Amino acid sequence: MKLCVLGDASYPHARNWVNYFKSRGAEVYLISLQNSIGTSVVEHTIPSKQLPGFLKYPLSIGKIASLIKSINPDIVNAHFVPNYGFISAIIGTRPLVVSCFGSDVLEPPRKGILRKARIKFTLNKADLVTTDGKILKDAVHKFGIPYSRILNIPIGIDTPVFNPLKKTFPPKVVYMRRLEYVCNPELFVNALPAVISQCNIKPVMLDMGSHRDKIFSLVKKLGLESKIEFMPFLSEQKLASLLGESTIYVSTSFSDSTSVTLLEAMSCGAFPVVTDIIGNREWVKDGVNGYLVPLNNPAKLAEKIIKALSTPLLIEKAFLKNTEIIKKYGDRYKNMGVVESAFFNIMNKYKNK
How far apart are CA 140 and CA 98, in angstroms? Predict the structure, then answer.
């Protein structure tokens, strides 16, 4: 298989995806406007720093089309619908698989009618659409795509890498989501004064995302500068080590399909305290293998974090339950094998035309 992937090379999703296909013997090419975080495939980075954000994708169409033509792949796979997916749809390359990852499809009502039209156009040009959760599959279907053209399966995680380690003391509470609007990091930060006042913790957060300045201003306003540890981008191995040592994993997103980091935390024995949204409900049952909390209630989030930290037996039982769930539904190599088979089926259909 000669596979050409279009996607954000700075995201772990793209790295894990292309590295899987390379490990399976495919000839893989990655085209991106972002700098890579490290893959084992042939990469083509298109410089875009000098272009305005809203223009960098459309102004790159010619270059991307030329690269795809020179690669002459058996199949093109575009990640994230409104940008790389839209570019692929305009170019008209076939066969085309478009992969959705949550906010690219779930957020359009907030983004406006033009974005919705772009998404509908892109999805209808795809031979197959991949999704990683029921909420996302149903959202794609609402754009007129029959379920027969949707493959719903989570990317999954590298289970041999994400394992529990000896839990640290004081316990670690980690927030490993980017500082972006959709991840709602303000909710976590606003809950911290109550948690820190009652528990001996120093929370860990990622130091990356477009809302970084806003979050750092909030941290300063609450007097938490010395009470939170901010970490830069982490390799998969370092993230696994951090989650393996952690007691509590927090995610406060407004919208999610299947969060890969949630699965990684579950596999590592970090107890999930996450927002009560459909994507999280697919994986977490409140009070059984984690806690579900309201979207905009810092007091309730703080209450649940404190309660979890004071209930080690619940955390232990949740870990046993969560490792079973991940083994059954969240193993990357098993799940990506299903995606690989679907790619071969599409290629064969085109070859037989």
Answer: 11
What separation in angstroms does the CA of 2 have from each of 102, 277, 278, 347?
Answer: 27, 38, 36, 10
Q: At residue 110, does pLDDT exceed 70?
A: no
Maximal C-alpha separation, the chain: 67
* 164 domain-assigned: no
Q: In this structure, how many other beta carbons lie within 10 angstroms of the beta carbon of residue 35? A: 12
Domain co-membership, 92 together with 63: yes
Burial category of 37 from C-beta neighbours within 10 Å (exposed 0-12, middle 13-18, buried 19 and up) = middle
Could you tell me if 118 and 85 lie in one domain?
A: yes
| Residue 107 banded pLDDT, cuts 50, 70, 90 | low
Number of domains making up the chain: 2
CATH number of residue 55's parent domain: 3.40.50.2000
12-69 tens-digit pLDDT: 888 889 999 999 999 999 999 988 877 889 999 988 766 666 688 888 999 999 999 9
d(CA 191, CA 181): 17
Our CA angle for 223, 227, 230, nearest 5°, is: 110
Is there a single domain that holds both residue 101 and residue 180?
A: no
Q: Are residues 132 and 57 in the same domain?
A: yes
Do 225 and 247 lie in a common domain? yes
- pTM of the shown model: 0.90
Domain that holds residue 301: 173-329
* Same domain as 206, residue 136: no
